[in-house]
Amino acid sequence: MLNVTIFNMEGINVDEMELEESIFGIIPNESVMHDAVINYLANNRSGTQSALTRGEVRGGGRKPYKQNKIDKSRAGSIRMPHWRGGGVVFAPKPRDYSYRLNKKVKRLAIKSALSSKVQNKEFIVVDEIKLENYRTKSIVAMLNALGADRKVLIVTPLIDNFVIKSANNIPGVETAVADSINVYNVLNCDKLIMAKEAITMITEMYS
Question: From CA 205, how far away is CA 32, in angstroms rounded?
């Protein structure tokens, strides 16, 4: 059995919860997590980098020197790659870096990431993460009460604009919805704070 303590937003122990071992208690597969992180970063690349090749640089249409009787006579253009102001060899051009991962690989990666957080004691369960209005101080107070003062990922069951916009004002704090968490964000945080209902949703999704 894999049990965790449930806290409220004031950091008080209110209950216990049993986690699904097939999701939160597996042996993390580092290779699969690495593949998922590389895939996430590649899919988020804009791919807009561009440089000019020798044929695209303006100028250099005529031969700069006479063919004979001068050391530099063989030069054919002032836009050759080894000349100042010349083109770039194999210049990068706009392209799409995105690719797809196998569905089973993605599922194993997210399970491994969640399990690693539980094993490293970087996993905190809150009974309910809810605000009545936009108030950053409430989120800061919750983080201080839970001992999460560095990079934090807060996971809610549904989109809650009060929580999202209040947390966005805090450096190092990110938010996510249960059905859209990714391996990169989970591994990139020092503390993973999840609402109890969000854990239930994730359990149903990956069981």
Answer: 19
Say how far apart CA 26 and CA 108 lie, in whole Å: 9
Which pLDDT band holds residue 72 (cuts at 50, 70, 90)?
confident
Cα–Cα distance for residue pair 50/61, rounded to 1 Å: 22
Question: Comparing C-alpha atoms, which of 122, 116, 183, 112 is closest to residue 150?
Answer: 122
pLDDT at residue number 119: 95
Higher pLDDT: 131 or 67? It is 131
Tell me if residue 173 falls in helix, strand or coil: strand
Question: Is residue 165 a contact partner of residue 133, using CB atoms and an 8 Å limit?
Answer: no
Under the phi-then-psi rule, with left for phi > 0, alpha for psi from -120 to 50, and beta for the rest, what region is 66?
Answer: beta
Pairing of strands 123-126, 13-19: unpaired
Cα–Cα distance measured from residue 201 to residue 153, given in angstroms and rounded to the nearest whole number: 17
pTM: 0.84
Cβ-based neighbour number of residue 73 at 10 Å: 12
* CB 89 within 8 Å of CB 156: no
* Whole-angstrom distance, CA of residue 27 vs CA of residue 93: 41
Crossing angle of helices 196-206 and 103-119, in 10° steps, is 140
* Predicted confidence band of residue 160 (pLDDT cuts 50, 70, 90): very high
| β-sheet bridge partners, residue 125 | 6, 194
Q: Record the tokens describing residue 142, joined without a space.
A: 């919750």
